[in-house]
Structure formats: structure tokens, C-alpha cells
Design brief:
The protein is α/β, with parallel strands linked by helices. Helix content is 40%, strand content 14%. Strand 9 and strand 10 form a beta hairpin.
């Protein structure tokens, strides 16, 4: 089997992640922050170490500002629904995932916000400034498309947000682990990310890094392990947003994944993904009938003539190649590409993929096309 669906969930995980996860479950998986026995204390220590690893990866100075979630969707809902004020305008890009669009649409119905998208096809900074309105109070934006790999420079977003005093919420789902992110140099109010993609954690892991160290609005209520006499959640982070028992095994796997990335080096990973992407793009470009869309961040989307993308992905799957077809939960991108009905076949790499796998994929794709 060749796995090219890493933009959804990375597979396989590095051996160190599997080993650390296994050790956690077997040796110390108590309830963190709820008891004083050794298993609980060890779990709490590992969770705090995970906060430190993540803040270090982001060059941020406050581990307590890392709030754990169950995925990027949970993280984005948390950030959007606690940081965006009522009756304002929110600006986003034209390639957002539904994890951004649907929370904004829910807020539109409940709190009378408005939202619109800027065009990413040209000068990004000029497009953003042109799209700002008098009542714009926030930008919610992905910095890498999960369909085409299109990028938005975080430097530009951070600069505009600072100059205009706008709340900036970043979806780093397809960039973190692939590109260097430095929140000291390019701050934002919240950065949201999954743990199970390029950070190599297991499913059920994700986080928000908040610039502010106190919560604004309540998001979930329940046990916090501290100040139990109070009828309301703590005001300080991370407990203010982490009601209930944390997913210790998932968080430990995320910690181990981040440690692995630091050992390998972001620059090494970036070069590796660029090599694999170029190799695949060059090969796909030589196949007659392939419609190739923009690529980047280890993500390539394509179609073959007018065949439904599901037909191509299914044919590849039958021969042991895992890709993803359809709209990838990002219909606005496909509307722009003209693939809203056809969808697209997405190939997405991990730094653990090999040149040999890319060659095999290209060969098998040609075989599948001949059989159509």
C-alpha cells in the first residue's frame, strides 16, 4: 500500500510516536490534574511537556496559552466563537475549509456578523486591504489550502492585523509541520492546528495557541481540576477552555510527533516535500488528459479529462494507492477551479514518503487510465 492522503491524516506515524503512545497507555495513563497519585501526576507532567514542545515549535513564550482540542475543527470553533464580537464584519480568504466557513455562518445567524472573502489570485496584501470594511474587526484565514496548496504569507496577515487593530485567527492545518511558523515575528490572536496531520499525532489531538492568557467567553463548562467550588470555569488558560478529562494518549502522541519534527528539522522536511511534489507534478504533466491544478505544501490536485474524481481515486485504491477525491470540505476552492461537480483527486505527501512511491504512483495511474 502507498499512502498519499496525509493532508487528511498522516500515516504511518514515526516509530517514536507509536512507542511513546504505547508506553503512555501501559504505564501512566491516569487522569491528569484530577488526582495526586503517581499515574495522574505523570500524565499531567507529560501534558505540560506537550504544551512546552508546541510553544517551542511556534517560538511562543507561554506554554499555558496552548489549549488542547480534539482536532482543528474543534480548535477553530473555539477560537472563532470566543474571539469574534457581535455585529461586525469578518474577512476570510476564497479557499477556506468548512471548519472556518461553517462556524462563521453559525455566528452570522446567531450574532448578526457578516463575512466575505478576499481574492487570493494576485497581490494578496492589496486584495485584503481592498476587501476591508469600516466595521471589519477580524480576519480568519488559512495559510495553506488543503486542495491546491495555495499559500498566504503569515507576515502579510500579521502586519495588516497589527496596523488595523484586527483580531487575527489562523488556520495552520496544512502548514504547521511543513513550514516554519514564528509567532514572535508574526503574532496572531489565535493559531489553530490539528495534531494528527503533519505533526504526526494520532486522531483526537489538536490545539489553539492564544495570544491572550485569559479567556474572553465561555465555550465549554465542566470539571477543570482546580477551583472546584466555583460554579463557573476559571478565567485563566488553559483550564478556562479545557473542561473535562483531556485526551492524554492523543496529547502524548502529539508531543512525540513535535519532538520528531524538531529532530528532523523543518527545513529538511520542507525540502523533502518540495522534492516529492516536483517529482509528482513533472510526472503528471507528461500524462495526456491530466488536468493539473496548482500545487504546494506537499499537496497536488488533478483530474483526468471529465471523469468524476471518485472514479480515478477508486481505481487507484484498487491497486493500493490511497488518495482522496471529491470536494475536500472546501467547496469555495472547487468553485474557483471549476470542479464543483467533478471534484478533484488529491495527492498529499508526508516527509516519510519516498521517491520510489511517487514513481509507483505515476506508473499505476497510467495503468488505471488505460483501463478506463
Amino acid at each position: 500500500m502507498i499512502y498519499f492522503d496525509n493532508a487528511a491524516t498522516s500515516f504511518p506515524k514515526p516509530p517514536c510516536v507509536i512507542d511513546d503512545l504505547n508506553y503512555c497507555i501501559r504505564k501512566y495513563c491516569g487522569n491528569p490534574g484530577r488526582s495526586s497519585h503517581s499515574l495522574s501526576l505523570k500524565a499531567a507532567e507529560e501534558i505540560y511537556a506537550a504544551r512546552e514542545e508546541i510553544s517551542g515549535l511556534l517560538n511562543a513564550d507561554s506554554p499555558e496559552s496552548v489549549v488542547f482540542t480534539y482536532n482543528a475543527t474543534h480548535a477553530l470553533n473555539l477560537a472563532i466563537k470566543t474571539l469574534i464580537t457581535k455585529n461586525c464584519h469578518v474577512l476570510t480568504s476564497d479557499f477556506e475549509h468548512n471548519s472556518v466557513i461553517r462556524p462563521l455562518e453559525a455566528l452570522r445567524k446567531k450574532t448578526n456578523i457578516q463575512y466575505s472573502a478576499f481574492n487570493t489570485g494576485g497581490d494578496i496584501e492589496a486584495a485584503i486591504i481592498t476587501a476591508l470594511r469600516e466595521n471589519t474587526r477580524a480576519i480568519v484565514c488559512s495559510i495553506a489550502s488543503n486542495v491546491t496548496g495555495d499559500e498566504i504569507d503569515l507576515n502579510i496577515l500579521s502586519k495588516i492585523a497589527r496596523e488595523r487593530n484586527l483580531t487575527l485567527i489562523i488556520d495552520a492545518s496544512q502548514a504547521i509541520g511543513h513550514r516554519d511558523i514564528d509567532l514572535e515575528r508574526t503574532p496572531c490572536d489565535a493559531l489553530c492546528a490539528p495534531g494528527h496531520k503533519a505533526l504526526f499525532g494520532i486522531q483526537g489531538s489538536g490545539f489553539v495557541y492564544f495570544k491572550e492568557k485569559e479567556r474572553r467567553e465561555s465555550f465549554i463548562e465542566g470539571g477543570s481540576g482546580s477551583d472546584s467550588r466555583s460554579r463557573v470555569m476559571p478565567l485563566t488558560l488553559p483550564e478556562g477552555y479545557e473542561g473535562g478529562t483531556l485526551a492524554t494518549p492523543a496529547i502524548v502522541s502529539l508531543k512525540s510527533g513535535v519532538e520528531y519534527i524538531k529532530r528532523v528539522g523543518i527545513n529538511v522536511i520542507e525540502r523533502r516535500l518540495s522534492l516529492l511534489t516536483k517529482m509528482a507534478v513533472d510526472g503528471l504533466s507528461e500524462i495526456k488528459g491530466i488536468n493539473l491544478y496548482q500545487d504546494g505544501h506537499g499537496v497536488i490536485s488533478f483530474n483526468f479529462r471529465n471523469y468524476p474524481s471518485s472514479i480515478i481515486a477508486s481505481a487507484l485504491d484498487c491497486k493500493g494507492i490511497c488518495t482522496r477525491s471529491g470536494l475536500h470540505c472546501a467547496p469555495s476552492v472547487h468553485e474557483r477551479l471549476g470542479t464543483l461537480e467533478q471534484g478533484a483527486v488529491r495527492v498529499s505527501f508526508s516527509c516519510l514518503n519516498t521517491e520510489r512511491e511517487v514513481k509507483a504512483f505515476l506508473y499505476i495511474l497510467k495503468m488505471c487510465i488505460l483501463e478506463l
